[in-house]
Amino acid sequence: MATKAYVLIETAVGKTKDVLRVLQQMEGVKEADAVTGEYDIVAVIEAENLNSIGELVTGGIHTISGIQRTTTYLSMSV
């Protein structure tokens, strides 16, 4: 079973569309939507395990130009 997480992303002023385009083409990103509120984008990501989620966030998402801050929430089965 894949590990799923929600990544809340704050972008630099005027960069939301650019970041969104990159995210929507990135492997492991299942959905990415612009939203209102404290964050600018919410992305749903999936990977094989927790380590792969970490690699996707730190090695992929964090490298996108225009991202200022992220917060990641792991999905849990209850």
Write up what this structure looks like:
With 78 residues, the chain is an alpha+beta fold. It has one domain: Alpha-Beta Plaits, CATH 3.30.70. It has helices at residues 16-25, 50-60; strands at residues 3-11, 29-34, 41-47, 67-74. A 4-stranded antiparallel β-sheet has the order 2-3-1-4. β2 (29-34) and β3 (41-47) form a beta hairpin. It is globular, with a radius of gyration of 12 Å. The mean pLDDT is 96.
Note the main attributes of this structure.
single chain; 78 residues; alpha+beta; Alpha-Beta Plaits; 4-stranded antiparallel β-sheet; 2 helices; 4 strands
Produce a short descriptive summary.
By secondary structure, this protein is an alpha+beta fold. The chain has helices spanning 16-25, 50-60; strands at 3-11, 29-34, 41-47, 67-74. It is built from two helices and four strands.
CATH topology: Alpha-Beta Plaits
> What general outline do the C-alpha atoms trace?
globular
Average predicted local confidence, pLDDT: 96
Strands across the major sheet, in which order?
Answer: 2-3-1-4
Question: Structural class given helices, strands, pairing?
Answer: alpha+beta
Radius of gyration over all CA atoms, rounded: 12 Å
How many strand units?
4
Which CATH architecture is right?
Answer: 2-Layer Sandwich
**Uncertain residue segments:** none
| Approximate strand percentage | 35-45%
Number of separate helices:
2
Kindly state the percentage of residues in helix.
Answer: 25-40%
| CATH domain class name | Alpha Beta
Number of domains: 1
Helix and strand run: EHEEHE
Largest sheet: 4 strands, antiparallel
Going by CATH, the homologous superfamily would be Lrp/AsnC effector binding domain/regulation of amino acid metabolism (RAM) domain
- Euclidean distance between termini CA atoms: 15 Å
